[in-house]
Amino acid sequence: MLGDINADIMARVKSWPEPGQECLAERLELHCGGVGANCALALRQWGIPVQLIGCVGKDDLGGFLVNTLAANGVNVKQARRTEKAMTGMLYINVTPDGQRTFFGSRGANQLVRRLPYGGASPLGSARAASLMGYSFLDEGGEAAAQQIIAAVRRQKGWVSLDAGMEPSKKIPAKLLQVAKTVDLLFVSDQEATALTGYRKPEEAFHSLLKLGIPAVMKLGKRGALILDDGSVRRVPSFAVRAVDSTGAGDAFTAAFLQGRLRGWSNAESALAANAAGAAAAGVIGAGERLPALRQIKRVLSAGRLKKPWEAVRLRVLRLLSGVSR
Hints:
Blueprint: E1 6-12, E2 28-33, H1 35-45, E3 54-57, H2 60-71, E4 79-82, E5 88-94, E6 100-105, E7 128-132, H3 139-154, E8 158-162, H4 165-170, H5 172-179, E9 184-188, H6 189-196, H7 201-210, E10 215-218, E11 224-228, E12 231-235, H8 248-261, H9 266-281, H10 293-301, H11 309-320
């Protein structure tokens, strides 16, 4: 997995401040974050072995992040440390409705570079790779991503790409080009609009399919759009009391990927992903705070769905009974 590793400094506030207003939170929280770290940690909750490729600074925050990832079972041998930049850091302002606003910088994440070859592939025997759109904002990150795609292809594996809001706005043409070379593209409706120009989710989704891009569209409270058995289907969401949406999309991506790795159908993977995203929205913070399997099962077990999704929900619960961390 190639992606950003950030220190998330989070604060819950009563309301969004007016310009110039002093806004104090009762407490600050420090968590491991960044789309790469979030997805890696979420995959570990599903019992999937993960190697995370990224870059942090040679500072205390970088040490905290690498140690946190390693303590949670993530392989960080390719998480490089540099003195040329500070560790990426975000201040996340969370309001009572669960919405979050980010302020910060990618920092050392912008200094990812090609992986060193010492004879054997640095990816080992990986049969799948997950890439993030942020990597394509920088020359070194793009080189590493292309290197990973080539290495996984040689091993007859498959590759996914999570577009990301900022990359889809800044480099839409490049992301579309890369998306045509991968096996699965994750997008939100806003990201899909930035990539295709279509504002309605269904139109943007069909546009991606016409370009030959196999997409999964994350719609938050409105569920998800997938291609299943040749038909576009809207996957229902799960109602939870949202306290912080940070990392919910990353939890969705990880849950879908683990389903794909285990041979689940797109419908089963997407329903599990919606449950994981909902469970993530019910906790403060992402990274090491992302929901465990028991929390995801609790969301899936909370209520019945309308046909034909009730049958899918029951199948997913049966499949989860065989999953151990």
